[in-house]
Amino acid sequence: MAHERPHRQPGDLEIGTADVFMNREGPPVHVVEHPPPPQWYLRYEKARPRLLVEMVAECFGTFLYCWGGMSNVGSLLSVAFAYCVAILLALICCASTSGGHFHPAFTIAFTIYKGFPLRKVPFYIVAQLLGAFVGSLIVIAQFHEPLTHITHEMEAAGKLREIFTPLGPASAIEATLMPGRNLGYVFFNEFMMNFVMGVVVFGILDPTNVFISPTNGPVAISLAFFLVIVAFSMQGAAINTARDLGSRMAAAVYWGHPSLVFPKKYTALSVLTNIVGVFFGAGFQILFLSDTKRAITTGAKQMLCATSHGQLAIDTSVPGITRVVSTAPLARTVSITPNSMEKQRHTGSHGSFSTRTEEA
Q1: Residue partners of 354: CB distance under 8 A and separation at least 6
Q2: Are 239 and 228 in contact (CB under 8 A)?
Q3: Which of 185, 193, 258, 344 is most buried, judged by most C-beta within 10 A?
Q4: In the CATH scheme, what architecture does the domain 50-289 have?
Q5: What would the pLDDT profile of 101-142 be if each residue is shown by its tens digit?
Q6: Which helix (H) or strand (E) segment is 278 a member of?
């Protein structure tokens, strides 16, 4: 796609993984420069719909989250670790493009509390559901032989319903419950896991939080998911509406029997409870654990500088609000109440930031 790179000087590291050292602080490490992108790619980049790119990022991130997590059929610890790594990689690969929601509950929470555009919500949720559905189908395809073998054995033994319990092969794909479980207890368990996740994620994203740097955020979020899966998933856990509903749709495609794949009460509980839990958890963090009078951390300011080519001016003339004004050619103004760092209405060709996000 690209033209040939410039001549490599003695001592320069070759293009590849060494690119991680480019344009970073620290001891000088010389990496051979990349060639400029070809004109056809620049024209494509300018013409492609921004919302479509964000949907692709959400779709692939949710795909990676589901595909990586479902692919492990070992112990609970190894399953939790697989989900942890999958979420970490999804955030690293896709969050800079779409914001890294991968979860309808967080898309809704970002809309309510951080001004994420309402018009984007259905597109993001559709992309997340599609990513989970495709990821689940691919896991089924990769494990087709053992899944088919176990399914045929259980059907021959007259244990059709057990296929869709924690003792059956469907439990590797979709969230299942043992018959007779108290749904009130399952609801409480699901609510508490997602309440805590809402508090933790919004706490990590708080730009005044001095105990976490922006670059460590994905690691901390992944470890939080690891904790709730290890500690409480044995009691029944869906955690993510997209993962739960997408995997059920894939299971229905493979096994059929929609009445067993979509048990009415438990499906409604698993799909909706995490939205309620994250909503209250995020609200709890904003109401009781954030403070607009705290200063924005150096790391948060550096992240803003990175997106504004380092040309920023800080304006604190309005009490409780820090304005970060970019003097770059594509000037952006960021108004920040230190418990949020929400994007604002765009100005110029690429926009600006404020407490409400209105993107082209």
Answers
A1: 115, 333, 334, 335, 342, 343, 344, 345
A2: yes
A3: 193
A4: Up-down Bundle (1.20)
A5: 999 999 999 999 999 999 999 999 999 999 999 999 999 999
A6: helix 264-284
Q: How far is residue 111's CA from residue 23's CA, in Å, rounded to a whole number?
A: 33
Residue type, 104: P
* Residue 237 in this model has a pLDDT that exceeds 90: no
Provide the terminal-to-terminal Cα distance of the chain, rounded to the nearest Å.
Answer: 28
CA distance 85 to 223: 9
| Predicted confidence (pLDDT) per residue in 9-60, tens digit | 665 655 565 555 556 666 666 667 778 889 999 999 999 999 999 999 999 9
**Single pTM value for the model:** 0.80
* Token digits of residue 301: 């300011």
Phi, psi of 129 (to 5 degrees): -65, -40
Domain locations along the chain: 1-47, 50-289, 294-360
Identify the pLDDT of residue 7: 66
Contact 221/87 with Cβ under 8 angstroms? Answer: yes
